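From the shared-data thread, chain only:
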Amino acid sequence: MMSSTRHREMMSEINIIPLVDVVLVLLIVFMITAPLLYRGMDIKLPQAATNSIKPSERKVLTVEKSQRVYLDKEEVGLARLEERLRVLQAASPDVALYLRADRDVPYGSVVHVMDLIKRAGIVKLGIVTEPLSIK
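Structure, as tokens:
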């Protein structure tokens, strides 16, 4: 009877295939979830053929369809908006403000916000629009 003994040799190489599989799965997961982490404000801008002012320091005031108002990305109530704009204008007298208002916001609400901006002493006001697509 012949006894067969098998001698296994130790493998001296690192098997990187499982590592590559895990890294690729993580890459795909991060590629899918990264754009979802930043959620902007959904507004539909009106279109215009002309461009606005180009100041050195600018702030963006956004009025959503639900008429919530944001100064840059911070929500500000209409009651405190004029006060916040006065502080902003006092800190930087040359500040320019861009007004982004959803096209479905009532005209009277936009005019009220513009009136608050002018009463706060900010004279450089631009209205953000989408470029007019000429076909």
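The helical segments are 17-37, 78-91, 107-119.
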